[in-house]
Design goal:
By secondary structure, the protein is mostly helical. The chain has 8 helices and no strands. The longest helix has about 35 residues. The radius of gyration is 47 Å and the shape is rod-shaped.
Amino acid sequence: MTNRTQIRTQRISFVLALSVITYTAIDTYLFACHEINIMKITTPVILGLVTTILLCGLLQRSFYKWLTKNPIDFSFGWQSPLVFDSDFEIKDNCANEAQTIEQPNDSVIDNYEALLENVKKKEAERQVKIMDAIREYVTIRTTPYLSKDAIATLIANIEYMACNQPYLYKPIRSNINNPLRSPGLRHLAWNVGERLNVPLVKRAEFIKASFPHELINATPEYLRLNLRDTVTSQIPIDVPDKGDFRFHLDTDNDDSQ
């Protein structure tokens, strides 16, 4: 677009320059050879043309500004019925759609809130059932190795893990005569954490903080990598069935050593 404008400007400049040179040459020839002064004839014409061009440009600019601010319909009320109907239908549909988006049906929103509340309620009920199952499982599996108070502390630590509150963990010591060993503790952390959907690193932190004496030689990284292994232990791995959180307490697979 810029190149075309430049070319057009160059052509106009060339034509103007050529016209001036031609006019000067003719005027000089007529005055020198025939003593005819064409300035008396052409000067009024040139001035009139220049004045007309300038006035036309000013009027055009003034009308353009005025029409821009005050648009006028030059169709005088006549419109094509086909175009009018099509345009009206499109605008009407868009307006209805925009109104639907801006002002959604209240019943839909109310239904969404009810559905969301129902989902939250069911999830909360499921979490309660999971914790009940964990409490039962932990109590049954650790009774031979922990005192009543220790089991209560262990269950509290599990609840802190579920709520992501590791700073509330309290240490536990298993029975001196029948202590829990590292494989069983690792499996316990995996089994419980699997029902709570807790990351392995948090399971390792939980079991390490809960049994610092029994796991004194185990690093958190080692525990994380060996939570679910095939080592025979006091508490075996208990993989939940698909879509279920319950433990397999009815199977006697306790391999105490």
